[in-house]
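Marked as duplicate of an earlier ticket. Keeping the data here for the record.
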Amino acid sequence: MLKKTEDLYLSIDKIDAHIHQNSRRTALLEEAEKEGFRLVTINTEVPDFPPTDDQREIALACDAELPGILSFMATFSTEDWGEPDWHIKALAQIQTGIKNGAVSVKIWKNFGMDLRDSNGDFVMADHPSLNPIYETLEKNGITLIAHIGEPKNCWLPIEEMTVNGDRDYFSKNPRYHMYLHKEYPSYEEHLQARDRFLKKFKNLTFVGAHLASHEWSVEKVAEWLDTFPNAGVDLAERVCHLQFQAAGNQPKVKAFVEKYQDRIIYGTDQIDDGTLEDNDLRATIRKKWHEEFQFFAEDSEQSSKQVDKPFRGLGLDKSVLTKIFCSNALRYYPKIDK
């Protein structure tokens, strides 16, 4: 980063509002404190993550050891889904999270990509069994964040994908590479299901994780945000898609970010599951924070291992950077400050 960018980086409060703290060590929190970041860990029902209740307890333990850095988002288990009282158990789990300070509630792509009913049909994000959850969140003014579907690259052959991170991830995770699974719901079906429940629960405050799975087109993200005025998006693991688009048309990407500056939330999707050594974890997240901040802050030619072509940074004003890197997270997740 240029010296003036470094000074700007140090001068503003920052929140990484999308990580996964799945280890009781505090190396990531310590690095965040050094770099002027607060963190939000998102409890998520991922098969290779700890059980959802354990994720909550890990977050609380880390916060107790190094207070003031880490907040968490609650979720619920789909174990016993289909039983008559399933939604009662799910709501109780959510309530436990909220009582313990959860700033939001998360649903994941297992709705549409994993969970099936007794007929073998996929349970989509607008399934009636989820209505009591959406109703409760809407009634109580609790933000829902959702990772529904995947990047559009997921439905393409590896060689046609736009960014190297997707090529690497889906090569290693063929289970989630939908190009190989024609029997699964399409890209469009996932997003249509999400949008149907948003139209039904009009007052639900919502964050579409990962640029709401419209990461491939800032025009599509804009259209979606215009359709759902209570919605925002986060950038977790999708900054490279903005960089890819900036390589072809930087003014278009900059205009999008400036227009929707109040509805874009910074996050990285960094995971700490204990597999990386402390120093490697610290170096990884520090590099990501610096390079992604540089993209938004500097109007200079840049490069990324994720994108094959060079691109120009956005050179945003400090007021816009402050919203993206801090105040928007506080607006959608106000309990971060409590």
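See parent ticket for discussion. The chain has a mean pLDDT of 97.
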